[in-house]
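pasting for ref
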Amino acid sequence: MGHAPKLGQHERGQIKALSTTGCTHYETG
């Protein structure tokens, strides 16, 4: 893994939620 791309705290939260809820949350928001 190493360094993640330039992701803000907000975007990082979205990816975390995406991992839990799936792509739906990320696609809608």
